[in-house]
Amino acid sequence: MNSFFDLASKQHRGRQDASGPHAVFSHPAAPVDPGEAAGGDEPADMSRPTNGSPDSIADVDAEPAGAADRQHRAAPQPAGKPASACPLMAAHGLSKSYWKGNHEVPVLQEVDFEVQEDEFVSIIGQSGSGKSTLLHVLGTLDAPDAGEIHFDGQRIDVLSSSRRDKLRNQQFGMVFQFYHLLPEITTLENVLMPLMIAEGALSYWRRKREFTERARQLLELVGMSHRLDHKPRELSGGEMQRAAIARSLIAEPRLLLADEPTGNLDRQNGEEVMEILRTLNAEQNLTIVMVTHDAGIAVQADRTVRLFEGRVQLA
Ligand SMILES: Nc1ncnc2c1ncn2[C@@H]1O[C@H](COP(=O)(O)OP(=O)(O)OP(=O)(O)O)[C@@H](O)[C@H]1O
Ligand SMILES: [Mg+2]
After folding, report:
1. Which of 53, 95, 204, 238 is 20 to 30 A from 128 via CA?
2. Nearest CA to ligand 1 atom 30
């Protein structure tokens, strides 16, 4: 993985002074632009890749006035990087139940959670403790029954579905245990797919050269330059996950949400994926929230939040 570290450190240096297409993360902390016009409210398309071009949230249409100034109730902050006044993401009092007929199955119960900009937080808990549910709720893929989620100072759980889609596309990268690569297209095309969707055909084809260069750089960053034209079935599990990580970064997200990214990998591939995530956090200042059931993986984050039966368990 030497080439990865070489490139990662070059990219990191590049980030200090450049914001062109060659910087992996070219945008600074995106300011919120509350002035953007309101859009429609079509249903969320869960099949869409969760990335797009970099932008601000810019579209809080259901936000009560003054909410950006709201003082967040502090979530537990064990050891880790120092907390800033305004975390990148803060969730308070999240509750969610599923219903089996008339029987309520509580999954999240008044969960408080925060992640600071540049922090790497792991969420650990046994199977069924609600980890994936929490990650999906934080990523606005699923709605809480109660509670609030704020991102960059703005409340996001009340956004319309189209605005949640846009938020995910522009600000969040997502990585899943089973990769979710599209089987019929190549590694390079999979990485480009979020931009194809987010940009629309005309803009995408105009900027294809630039986007392709960015995708190639990301694939180099994760050690996949030699597999650009392979289809997912021609890749190992570790390679598929590295491609999925590259895809999650193509739109230069501010927050990476990873659900068991090593859960389907052998030890060596799992360690390589963790090395990539740690380096992205340390060198590229990427904020990461990672779900895992593996204590050895969880401790590699800055701090760990433990879920037990849908509640945050204090140490
Ligand atoms: N769509 C659903 N309908 C009903 N129950 C659900 C649904 N999704 C999850 N659950 C239940 O919610 C609980 C928490 O599920 P979740 O997937 O969040 O757990 P997890 O901690 O991620 O577990 P694992 O480590 O096995 O992935 C489980 O008991 C599960 O059966
Ligand atoms: Mg899970």
Report:
1. 238
2. 128
Burial readout 160-180 (b: 16 or more C-beta within 10 A, e: otherwise) = bebbbbbbbbbbbbbbbbebb
Protein residues with CB under 6 Å of any ligand 1 atom: 98, 105, 107, 125, 127-133, 293
Walk me through the domains of the chain, giving residue ranges and CATH numbers: 2-18+51-313 (3.40.50.300)
Strand pairing partners for 124? 292, 306
pLDDT tens figures, 165-183: 999 999 999 999 999 999 9
Rounded to the nearest whole angstrom, what is the distance from the C-alpha of residue 135 to the centroid of ligand 1?
A: 11
Per-residue confidence (pLDDT) for residue 83, from 0 to 100: 65
Q: 279-306 burial string, b = 16+ CB within 10 Å, else e?
A: bbbebbebbbbbbbeeeebbebbbbbbb
Rounded to 5 degrees, what angle do the CA atoms 37, 40, 43 make?
145
Q: How far is CA 166 from CA 40, 102, 116, 182, in A?
A: 11, 35, 22, 21
Ligand nearest to the CA of 103: 1
Atom 3, ligand 1: which residue's CA is nearest? 98
pLDDT confidence band for 230 (50 / 70 / 90): very high
What tokens appear for 300 in the block? 């590699």
Contact 161, 167 (CB under 8 A): no
User: Which amino acid residue places its CA nearest to atom 1 of ligand 1?
Assistant: 98
Best mutation site among 133, 177, 291, 313 for ligand 1, i.e. most ligand atoms within 8 A of its Cβ? 133
- CA 165 to CA 279: how far, in whole Å? 28
- Asked whether the whole model's pTM tops 0.85, one would answer no
Ligand with an atom nearest the CA of residue 105? 1
Cβ neighbours of 53 (radius 10 Å): 17
